[in-house]
Design goal:
Length: 162
């Protein structure tokens, strides 16, 4: 195999094993509700656990997700929407009492040590922008599809060079 092609394949494989990173976490306001957009990579091959939490006065409160148990007080106020590369958490009736550091965390299970990736955003009621104009349009080019296409391309090239 051509060494350059070998390196490209190796990079693709590395990309695969690391493809569950949280890339960004943003906060904005819809009416009186807080919306948190957690964008992440997704190669969709492994099981991923997720968690939204709020750290306030050094105390962590789990809001939603599959990692920790969401606190009862928040359970009725949160709703989660999920697409391939984004999780959107809505916290109803946001007030000053909900200010703090919000965290979105992903954890790939079945690996030791587990692969953990997170992002934080500091949320203050008076600094929050309205969500208008912040598009929910998801960048959803399928990594896997691109990978498969490039892999078969490499194979074809390899075949020709034989
Ligand atoms: C938000 O507050 C309104 C008015 O106080 C109330 O009617 C509504 O049930 C609350 N929503 C949630 C999800 O707690
Ligand atoms: C990754 O994408 C697949 C669908 O392609 C979806 O079923 C899975 O829930 C996604 N993973 C996360 C963590 O959202
Ligand atoms: C987010 O905050 C947590 C707890 O304070 C910290 O462990 C983590 O490294 C932070 N993540 C980033 C991406 O800064
Ligand atoms: C990509 O996003 C568009 C619009 O948000 C949606 O219609 C389409 O089904 C998505 N494609 C995939 C593969 O998720």
């Amino acid at each position: 195999m051509n060494p350059i092609i070998g390196i490209a394949v190796l990079l693709s494989v590395l990309q695969m094993s690391q493809g569950q990173k949280v890339t960004s976490l943003t906060a904005c306001l819809v009416d009186q509700n807080l919306r948190l957009d957690c964008r992440h990579e997704n190669n969709s091959l492994l099981t991923i656990q997720h968690e939204f939490s709020l750290t306030r006065e050094k105390k962590k409160h789990v809001l939603a997700g599959t990692l920790g148990v969401p606190e009862h007080a928040y359970r009725s106020r949160t709703s989660l929407k999920s697409q391939r590369n984004i999780k959107v958490l809505t916290l109803a009736n946001f007030t000053h009492k909900d200010e703090g550091i919000y965290t979105c965390e992903l954890q790939v299970s079945g690996q030791s040590p587990p692969l953990i990736s997170n992002q934080n955003v500091s949320v203050l009621r008076d600094k929050l922008v309205k969500c208008d104009g912040i598009s929910l349009l998801v960048q959803n080019t399928s990594w896997l599809l691109l990978l498969l296409i490039s892999l078969s391309l490499f194979q074809a090239m390899d075949f020709i060079s034989l």
